[in-house]
Specification:
The complex is a heterotrimer of chains A (507), B (316) and C (353). Chain B is mainly alpha-helical and 316 residues long. Chain B is built from 13 helices and two strands, in the order αααααβαβααααααα. In chain B, α3 packs antiparallel against α4 and α11 crosses α12. Chain B has a two-stranded antiparallel ribbon with strand order 1-2. Chain B has one domain (8-298): ABC transporter involved in vitamin B12 uptake, BtuC. Chain C has 353 residues and is mainly α. Chain C has a single domain, classed as ABC transporter involved in vitamin B12 uptake, BtuC, CATH 1.10.3470. Chain C has helices at residues 14-31, 33-38, 43-55, 58-83, 91-108, 114-143, 147-166, 201-218, 220-230, 232-237, 242-269, 280-290, 295-319, 325-345; strands at residues 2-8, 346-352. The chains are: A alpha/beta (507), B mainly alpha (316), C mainly alpha (353). Chains B and C meet through α4, α5, α11 and α13 of B and β1, α7, α12 and α14 of C.
């Protein structure tokens, strides 16, 4: 625990950062003290990551000053920050999959004699650090062979190897199983006990309450509040973060599910490395039912969604939608069988960012009879269709001719939603539907998915966010290493049970 | 006929021709591998080689020194590579289009400067080219000796470059930086490696090698400059990079295989087969495509290739 | 310390899109002064003859159109392929394939009624170019062979196929040169204006611009090919058969390049020779980029290029500046245009500390 009268190790003064028309940080003051775990809390887009990227030297701020350990710091690149003991672990790891753990850790450290790498002494030093912090990883292992949790350890080791004493972690638990999170928290506490400082960026209230000593809440680019962790609670934090009561739940109607819309039998699929990612999977979803597929990332959910979307050919098994067989590896078949598909990687898979909003709307149905006559697009009907969707889904855009890339994240997801739901699908598969969205957009997407269920569709929601699963779903399955660990109706599900399943523990 | 093909003089000659024809491809392939491992595809290679060939010839013609010519060719390669770096690294323009731009520009420039200096003579001007240097003892080994160890100095240099660049890439600090910049520029940036500087340096070093490879063609392989002297060898080198899976050793092996095919068609032409020589000339290109078909499915492209790196991409 | 960064800018207004190519051309012409001065040319005199040679007389002006015809075809070919991110650098080889097929048809299809022959010659040229381009497209879609490399290498393969045929079956009987016999009269393009070489291929090139514009803007295929170019993964996700879109794109692209070859053969040379194209296929790449991959842009940049190419001959004659100045200007034009295009999206920011 730290007292405020102590001299902070980092002082950020009046930091302002603008991107084009958006002000990501406005006049922010932020301190970090030695030996504390400070949580930086805020919803997506509140400016947490931007602020820390400025401290890390990755962005330069438009206004403001930074003092590290009492000295004014001009940070023009991460190199400057690292030299002053500031390290940051981004949400997307910055590792080279084809290289060894050791190579990933020592790059740029200039250890070794002159021109050549000195792998042997670097290895000795790494093993020593590993022992001290209990972070066991084989230094010779190629990074692509490691699990996400292990890769995070490599990232932490990378910082420790550079003798970082101010460690910033951006949403570190998003990719971890509950048991791995426990382990991570232990490591972070160990670091703080040694007198190092940890900044923990998160939007998850419970987590922040558990790990931090002090909480700084950001809202819309400004500091909304600062609290000692012991002197606040989840409800107050939620209010501070969103500006209104977050804990109000969306109303979920109880509906009895109807006949099956999708039946998956004995499904086995490989991942990109050629390893079995989905193993002999069996799943059934009924009309008017939302099934939540929970699990830690990398347990086959991505591959499962790709098989459903027609993007990945399974090696075995069958998928029936409304009683009809889905042709393996055919997106057209998925579309024709009435599947609304919301891909997890919306920009890479779901959108044509350089094209207009309208051109994105017609991606799947430009070949349907209404929209063309003998090969020529019928623009009148297409315009009507586009305007109808823009209005119906409240998409904020300059118009149907605006480039998709000019839309915000939430509106892009609405665009996909509008396209995919416009054909009244019998089955909706949504993979990480609200990842990275702000609370407003998230609530909207949730409401829409619930409407689909009420209309009579079957819905599969694949998500790593347990809150989302509990908010939306009628039934939960947990995927672990490509298999279904458990299957439970929402009324009987407990977070503890789900957490155990996610860690691969069957009770 | 078969006897004629298999006699020792023929095989020795073929080995020699293989190494000779492979030399410019080795230079260019190794240079391109260095560049691509840092994440830049340099399609300027064909034009840079042509400028190297022209510059090497012109400077030798004026100065009378072959090595001054080679150095000038390397220097011109570096300058053009800097232009490529300005377009594709600093400005972050499409690597495909920037490279093609460099090739078109350099090709025009090479012909322009050549004509400016020599006009349009009926008989093309020539220089006294490099002569082969026999390595004592080794060149006396029967059959392979005279083929492998009685070669041009530039050929020996090309062969020495293969292990040298391998060691730089895999055993040195700068090599680890280059590989990381090529695989994941963000990872390199976040540990303080200057991504764009690393890429620029690789381009410049690669440009020197490409220019030298071009100069070999006008100063050793031939003794004059003709408009089609490169004849697609730059593009072949790009193919050899893929064939070698971005590894200097395997890439150079591909270059030697190409050199063998090129040498073989020259030798077979010499034997006077009654087939149009264009058929022979086509074989190396055709086989290069066939080889690409074989390796492309399992190619492990540097993950950062073709992607310009800018730090502040965030729009909102 | 000063550091320079390139950052995104607000989108430019529509008029800037038209102004930018014009500005790029002006800057290119200014930069061209450097090689002209080095070559000892007097600046104003050189520019005068450059434009006089291209536009000064009726004949010169019509010659500029004659030169523009193959450039429009290859420029369209490259632009159409690049729009779908099929990196067709092989327009040169496809042009030769078209010329080869047209030669063959123009010499041997003597039994066909006269009015039918020209369409047949053109169709065979189109198909030959298209099929030659579909080889790298198949290699790309089925075997993941890099299209840049394969299209480039196939250029050399086609040059040597042509060489082999010109020294073999297609060689003019009794000749020792690598050239074919002349095609028959009915296979030649009609001349449309007297005392000039203003031939059928010129209006055809303009019509091709309109057709490609129509395909791009109005048809399902045009939409699909654009979608594939922008994001092939999303296009596949959306149910577009990306393989057949790329194949058809290649076929049309190669066919357009093939028509450039047909025009050169049937309107200019009348017989196949090794030098039938002075690199029109490669110029097509620059033209496509300068025209921002838009058919109308291609039209205007082709006209600009033919001014340079035709004018450079007069300039070279009158001032002694080597003719290859035309190629230097082409290369510079591409690079200047690239830089200008960049600044439609980005701007340079200078940070002082």
């Amino acid at each position: 625990m730290t007292e405020n009268k102590e001299q902070p190790v980092v002082q950020m003064r009046s930091i302002t950062k603008r991107f084009l028309d958006v002000t990501a940080n406005r006049n922010i003051n932020f301190d970090i003290f030695a030996g504390e775990i400070c949580a930086l809390l805020g919803e997506n887009g509140a400016g947490k990551t931007t602020l820390m990227n400025i401290l890390f030297g990755y962005y330069t701020c438009d206004q403001g000053e930074i003092f590290i350990k009492g000295e004014k710091a001009d940070l023009s690149s991460p190199k400057d920050a690292i030299a002053r003991g500031v390290g940051m672990i981004h949400q997307h790891f910055t590792l080279v999959p084809s290289q060894s753990v050791l190579e990933n850790i020592i790059i740029g450290t200039d250890s070794g004699r002159g021109f050549f790498l000195d792998l042997r002494s670097a290895r000795d030093r790494l093993l020593e650090i590993q022992k001290r912090f209990g972070l066991q990883i084989d230094p010779e292992a190629r990074v692509w062979t490691l699990s996400v949790g292990q890769q995070q350890k490599v990232e932490i080791l990378k910082s420790l190897y550079r003798e970082v004493d101010i460690l910033i972690m951006d949403e570190p638990t998003a990719v971890l199983a509950p048991s791995e999170t426990v382990e991570l928290f232990k490591t972070l506490k160990h670091l703080a006990e040694e007198g190092r400082s940890v900044v923990f960026i998160s939007h998850k209230l419970n987590e922040v309450m558990e790990i931090s000593d002090r909480i700084v809440v950001l809202r819309e680019g400004e500091v909304a509040a600062e609290r000692k962790t012991g002197k606040t609670d989840v409800r107050e934090l939620a209010n501070l973060m969103v500006g209104r009561d977050l804990l109000e739940r969306i109303e979920k109607k109880r509906i009895t599910p109807g006949e099956p819309v999708v039946e998956i039998e004995g499904l086995t699929a490989l991942n990109d490395k050629g390893l079995e990612a989905v193993k002999n999977l069996k799943l059934l979803v009924r009309k008017k039912e939302i099934l939540g597929v929970a699990g830690v990332s990398g347990n086959g959910q991505t591959e499962l969604s790709e098989v459903l979307f027609g993007l990945r050919e399974p090696v075995k098994g069958s998928i029936k939608i409304g009683g009809r067989l889905l042709r393996a590896g055919s997106p057209v078949s998925a579309i024709n069988l009435g599947m609304g598909r919301i891909p997890e990687d919306r920009i890479e898979t779901g959108l044509l960012m350089e094209l207009t909003v309208e051109e994105n709307f017609i991606l799947e149905n430009h070949v349907s009879p209404g929209f063309h006559r003998s090969g020529l697009l019928s623009f009148n009907k297409i315009h009507q269709f586009s305007d109808h969707l823009i209005r119906g889904y409240g998409i904020k855009t300059a118009g149907r001719d605006a480039a998709a890339r000019s839309l915000s994240g939430g509106n892009l997801q609405k665009l996909i939603l509008a396209r995919e739901l416009s054909g009244e699908p019998t089955l909706v598969v949504a993979s990480q539907p609200t990842r990275g969205l702000d609370v407003g957009a998230m609530e909207y997407i949730h409401k829409r998915l619930l409407q689909e269920k009420e209309r009579g569709a079957g819905v599969i929601v694949i998500s790593e966010d347990l809150d989302e699963i509990f908010t939306l779903c009628d039934r939960i399955v947990v995927m672990y290493e490509g298999r279904i660990m458990g299957d439970v109706p929402i009324g009987e599900a407990s977070r503890e049970q789900i957490g155990l399943w996610m860690s691969g523990v069957r009770k | 006929m078969i006897g004629e093909i298999l006699n020792i003089a023929f095989i020795t000659g073929l080995i020699g021709a293989t190494m000779r024809m492979a030399t410019p491809i080795i230079f260019a392939t190794i240079g391109e591998i260095l560049v691509e491992r840092s994440g830049v595809l340099n399609l300027g290679i064909e034009g840079i080689m042509l400028m190297g060939a022209m510059t090497g010839f012109l400077v030798t013609f004026i100065s009378g020194s072959l090595w001054v010519g080679v150095l000038a060719a390397a220097l011109v390669g570096m300058i053009l590579a800097l232009l490529m770096a300005f377009l594709s690294v600093f400005l972050g323009l499409s690597q495909h289009v920037s490279g093609l731009g460099i090739t078109l520009f350099s090709s025009g420039l090479a012909m322009f400067i050549y004509r400016l200096h020599f006009g349009s003579p009926v008989i093309p001007p020539i220089v006294q080219p490099f002569t082969q240097v026999a390595i004592p003892l080794l060149s006396k080994i029967p059959v392979i000796g005279p083929g492998l160890f009685d070669q041009y100095m530039l050929t020996y240099i090309a062969l020495l470059l293969i292990p040298l660049i391998s060691i730089i890439l895999y055993k040195t600090k700068i090599g680890l930086k280059i590989r990381t910049v090529g695989e994941n520029p963000l990872a390199a940036d976040t540990v303080g490696v200057n991504v764009n500087l690393t890429r620029t340096l690789c381009l410049v070093a690669g440009g020197a090698l490409m220019g030298t490879g071009g100069a070999f063609l006008t100063l050793a392989h031939q003794n004059m400059f003709l408009i089609d002297v490169i004849g697609g060898r730059g593009w072949v080198s790009i193919a050899m990079v893929i064939f070698g899976n971005w590894d200097p050793l395997k890439g150079a092996l591909g270059a030697i295989i190409f050199g063998f095919l090129d040498g073989l068609q020259l030798r077979l032409q010499g034997l006077g087969f009654r087939v149009a020589f264009d058929i022979f000339l086509m074989i190396p290109y055709l086989l290069t495509i066939v080889v690409l078909v074989g390796v492309s499915r399992k190619a492990s492209v540097p993950a950062g290739l073709l992607k310009p790196y800018r730090r502040e991409e965030k729009g909102g | 310390m000063i550091s320079i960064r390139i950052v995104k800018r607000e989108p430019l207004p529509g008029w800037a899109r038209i102004l930018i190519p014009i500005a790029a051309i002006i800057v290119t012409l200014i930069l061209s002064a450097i090689p002209i001065l080095i070559a000892g040319g007097k600046l104003w005199k050189s520019y005068y003859f450059l434009f006089y040679g291209a536009l000064g007389t009726r004949f010169n002006l019509l010659e500029t159109f004659v030169k523009a015809s193959p450039l429009i075809f290859t420029g369209l070919a490259v632009a159409f392929a690049f729009r779908a991110k099929f990196w067709n650098i092989g327009a040169e080889g496809q042009l030769l394939a078209g010329a080869l097929a047209a030669t063959w048809a123009g010499i041997y299809f003597t039994g066909v009624p006269g009015f039918m022959l020209l369409p047949i010659v053109m169709i065979s040229g189109f198909l030959a170019g298209g099929l030659w381009a579909s080889i790298p497209a198949i290699l790309k879609t089925k075997l993941r062979v890099d299209d840049v490399v394969s299209t480039l290498l196939l250029n050399y393969v086609m040059i040597h196929i042509m060489g082999a045929l010109l020294f073999g079956p297609l060689q003019q009987p009794g000749s020792s040169w690598p050239r074919s016999s002349e095609i028959i009269e009915a296979a030649k393009y009609p001349m449309l204006l007297s005392k000039s070489r203003f031939h059928l291929g010129i209006p055809l090139a303009f019509i091709a611009v309109l057709i490609i514009l129509f395909i791009n803007k109005k048809t399902i295929f045009g939409y699909q090919s654009k979608a594939v170019g922008v994001n092939i993964k999303a296009a596949h996700f959306g149910g577009i058969n990306t393989t057949s879109v790329i194949l058809l794109t290649a076929l049309i692209s190669g066919g357009l390049a093939g028509l450039a070859g047909v025009g050169e053969l049937c309107a200019i040379q009348y017989r196949l020779i090794k030098d039938i194209s002075p690199g029109y296929g490669y110029s097509g790449i620059v033209i496509a980029m300068l025209g921002n991959l838009h058919p109308v842009g291609v039209l205007f940049s082709s006209l600009f290029f033919s001014v340079i190419i035709v004018g450079a001959q007069t300039m070279s004659r009158m001032t002694g500046v080597p003719y290859y100045i035309a190629e230097v200007i082409q290369g510079m034009a591409l690079m200047v245009m690239l830089v200008f295009l960049l600044f439609t999206e980005f701007r340079i920011r200078v940070l002082r500390k």
